[in-house]
Design brief:
By secondary structure, the chain is mostly helical. The chain is built from 19 helices and 4 strands. The strands form 2 sheets. A two-stranded antiparallel ribbon has the order 1-2. The protein has a two-stranded antiparallel sheet with strand order 3-4. A hairpin with a 5-residue loop joins β1 and β2. The two termini are about 20 Å apart.
Length: about 575
C-alpha cells in the first residue's frame, strides 16, 4: 500500500478536515450557551412558543421540574423510561402488519429481529440487521424508529447534564430532574433543530412523502420501482441525535438520503454539533469555560489524528486492485461513492465512528485493513471523541476521573478535579463503568468466534472475517451502529447477542456513572492551592489523550493484532484467504 502525499485528492481531503474542524469550533460556543440556558430553565428565543407546552407536559405527567432527584431516583427513571420505550417499540415492529401507514404491506418482524431493533434504537445504537425500504412500513419508521431517535438522544443529553451538575454543585443531594431534562432536550433542542434540518434536506432533494414508491423508466427503456417515504424527517434526527439508523439500507450512501456534497457537509455538522457544544456547556456550568475548551481540544486531537490517518491510508492503492489493472493514483475507491470521493468518505467515516452515530456514506468493509482499523479504534476507545449526544461527554468525564487519579499518584496528592476530591469509591465505580464495554466486546467476541451459529454469518475467511465480528460486537457495545456489512447478522444468535451487548454498553455504564455523579455532587469544593494540578492547559490535554490511548491500546491490541493488523501484513505479503 503506497500513499500519495502529493495527490490533489489528498490535499483536498486535508482541506475538508480543516474546514470541518473550524466550523465545529465556531459552533461550539453558541450551541453550548444555548444548551446551558435550556437546561437551567432560563428563557430562550423559543420560550414564548414552547414554555406553555413544557408546562402543560409537566401538568399532565404530574412532574415538578424544580424537584431534584438523587442519583438512584434519576437512574431508576432512566431505566423505567427506557424499558417502557423498548416494550412499545417492540410491539410496533412485531405487529406492524396490523398498524396503519404500511402501504408496502410489510409483515411484522421476527421476534429476535424485533427485539434487536427495539433495543438498538432505544440505546441510541441504531444497529440495523434489516433493509429499511424492504422491511419497515411508514408507521414503524415514523412512530417507532424516529420517535426513539428523539427519545434516546434526549436521554443521553440528560445524563450528561446530570454528570455536569455533579461537578458544578457542592453539598447537594440531587443531580437534577430527569423528566425535566428529557422534556427540555426534546422540546427546545432536538425538535426545532430537526425541523430546520429537515426543511434544508427537502430543499436539497431528500424525499418527504407518504407514498410507498415511484415507477421510473431508465435510459435503456426498462422500468424500475424506487422506494420513497418520509425520509427527510428521519434523516434530520438520525444525524442530530447521533442515531445513524438509515431509512434506506444503503444509509447516507443512498442518493435520496444524501444527494449532494452540501447535504453531506450538513449531515457531518449535525453529527458533531451538540456533542461539541456540550463541552462548552460543561465549562459554563462549572464556572470555567477553559475546562470545556480543554475537553474539546483533547477530543479534537484524537479526531484530527484519526481523520488524517484514514485519509492517507485510503489515498494509497490496494495491491490486489493494482494487479487487476486499476490506476494506483486513484487510491482505494472500492466501496466509496464517486460523488464524495476519498476525502469526504473518510472524513464521514471518522466522524460517524468518533460520535457513535453509525450513519455511513461508504462501505467500511471495503477499506484497506489499517483504514478499517481507524473507525474501529474510534469505537473501541469508548466513543468519547465527541461521542454520542451526551454519552460522549459523560464517557469523557469518566476518563478524566481516571486521569486525575493517575496524576495524583504521580505527584503524591489526593486526586481532585474542579475542587472535588476523588476518593477510592469514585475511582472504583468509574473503572466499573469504563470496563463494562470491553467485557461485553471481548466476551461476546470470544463466544462468537467459537460458536457455529456465530461463524455462519461471517462472509470472509481469515483476519478480515475476524474483523467483521470484532467490528459488529464493538459497534453494538459501543452503541455506534455502523458495521463491516460483510457479516450477516440477521440470525437469532447475532440479533440476541448484539442486543445484549447494546444493553450492557448503555445501561451497565450509566448506573455506576450516576453513582459517581451522586457522590461528587454531595461533596464540598476545596479551594485551589499551589499544588493543584491544572486541568485546562496543554499538559492536561496531553495526559487525557495518553490515558485514553493507553487504556484502549492495552485492552484491545490483541484483538486488533488478530484482525486488521494481521490482514495488513498478509496483504503486503500477497496472501489471500
Amino acid at each position: 500500500m503506497e500513499p500519495f502525499p502529493s495527490s490533489p485528492a489528498l490535499w483536498t481531503g486535508l482541506a475538508q478536515i480543516v474546514v470541518f474542524a473550524g466550523l465545529i469550533v465556531l459552533l461550539a460556543r453558541p450551541v453550548g450557551g444555548y444548551l446551558a440556558r435550556v437546561y437551567a430553565g432560563e428563557r430562550t428565543l423559543l420560550s414564548p412558543v414552547l414554555a406553555p407546552l413544557e408546562t402543560g407536559f409537566y401538568a399532565l405527567a404530574g412532574v415538578r421540574p424544580d424537584r431534584d432527584m438523587g442519583w438512584k431516583s434519576y437512574a431508576l427513571a432512566v431505566l423505567m423510561f427506557s424499558a417502557a420505550s423498548t416494550a412499545l417499540l417492540y410491539a410496533i415492529l412485531r405487529f406492524q402488519h396490523l398498524l396503519p401507514l404500511n402501504p408496502q404491506g410489510f409483515g411484522g418482524l421476527a421476534p429476535d429481529l424485533a427485539f434487536n431493533t427495539a433495543v438498538s434504537f432505544v440505546t441510541n445504537t441504531n444497529w440495523q440487521s434489516y433493509g429499511g425500504e424492504t422491511t419497515m412500513g411508514h408507521f414503524a419508521q415514523m412512530a417507532g424508529l424516529t420517535v426513539q431517535n428523539f427519545a434516546s438522544a434526549a436521554v443521553g443529553m440528560a445524563l450528561a447534564l446530570a454528570f455536569i451538575r455533579a461537578f458544578a454543585r457542592q453539598n447537594a443531594s440531587g443531580i437534577g430532574n430527569f423528566w425535566a431534562d428529557l422534556t427540555r432536550g426534546v422540546l427546545y433542542v432536538l425538535l426545532p433543530l430537526s425541523v430546520l434540518a429537515a426543511v434544508a434536506f427537502i430543499a436539497m432533494g431528500v424525499p418527504q412523502t407518504l407514498a410507498a414508491s415511484v415507477e421510473a423508466t431508465g435510459v435503456e427503456g426498462g422500468s424500475q420501482t424506487i422506494a420513497l417515504g418520509p425520509v427527510a424527517s428521519q434523516l434530520a434526527i438520525k444525524m442530530l441525535g447521533t442515531n445513524g439508523g438509515g431509512f434506506f439500507n444503503a444509509n447516507s450512501a443512498h442518493p435520496f438520503e444524501n444527494p449532494t456534497n452540501l447535504s453531506n457537509l450538513l449531515q457531518m455538522l449535525l453529527i458533531f454539533v451538540i456533542g461539541a457544544g456540550l463541552t462548552n456547556t460543561f465549562g459554563r456550568m462549572v464556572g470555567d469555560t477553559r475546562q470545556g475548551w480543554a475537553i474539546l481540544a483533547a477530543m479534537g486531537v484524537l479526531f484530527v489524528a484519526g481523520a488524517v490517518l484514514l485519509l492517507v491510508i485510503e489515498s494509497g492503492a490496494n495491491p490486489a486492485l493494482v494487479a487487476a489493472g486499476i490506476d494506483p493514483a486513484l487510491g482505494n475507491m472500492e466501496g466509496k461513492e464517486v460523488r464524495f470521493g476519498i476525502g469526504a468518505s473518510t472524513l464521514f467515516a471518522t466522524i460517524t465512528t468518533a460520535a457513535s452515530c453509525g450513519a455511513v456514506n461508504a462501505m467500511h468493509d471495503s477499506f484497506l485493513p489499517l483504514g478499517g482499523m481507524i473507525p474501529l479504534v474510534n469505537i473501541l476507545l469508548g466513543e468519547i471523541i465527541v461521542g454520542g449526544v451526551g454519552a460522549g461527554l459523560y464517557g469523557f468525564l469518566l476518563f478524566i476521573v481516571v486521569a486525575v487519579f493517575l496524576a495524583g499518584l504521580m505527584v503524591g496528592r489526593t486526586p481532585e478535579y474542579l475542587g472535588k476530591k476523588i476518593s477510592a469509591r469514585e475511582v472504583k465505580l468509574t473503572l466499573l463503568a469504563i470496563l463494562c464495554v470491553p467485557l461485553a466486546v471481548l466476551g461476546f467476541l470470544a463466544l462468537a468466534a467459537v460458536s457455529p451459529d456465530g461463524l455462519k454469518g461471517v462472509q470472509d475467511a481469515g483476519p478480515h472475517g475476524f474483523t467483521e465480528m470484532l467490528y459488529a460486537v464493538a459497534s453494538a457495545a459501543g452503541n455506534n451502529g455502523s458495521a463491516f456489512a460483510g457479516l450477516t447478522a440477521n440470525s437469532p444468535f447475532w440479533n440476541t447477542g448484539l442486543a445484549i451487548a447494546m444493553l450492557v454498553g448503555r445501561f451497565a455504564m450509566i448506573v455506576p456513572m450516576l453513582a459517581v455523579a451522586g457522590a461528587l455532587a454531595a461533596k464540598p469544593k476545596v479551594p485551589e492551592s499551589a499544588g493543584t494540578f491544572p486541568t485546562h492547559g496543554p499538559l492536561f490535554v496531553g495526559l487525557m489523550v495518553g490515558v485514553i490511548l493507553i487504556v484502549g491500546g492495552l485492552t484491545f491490541f490483541p484483538a486488533l493484532a488478530l484482525g486488521p493488523i494481521a490482514e495488513h501484513a498478509a496483504m503486503l505479503a500477497g496472501q489471500t484467504f
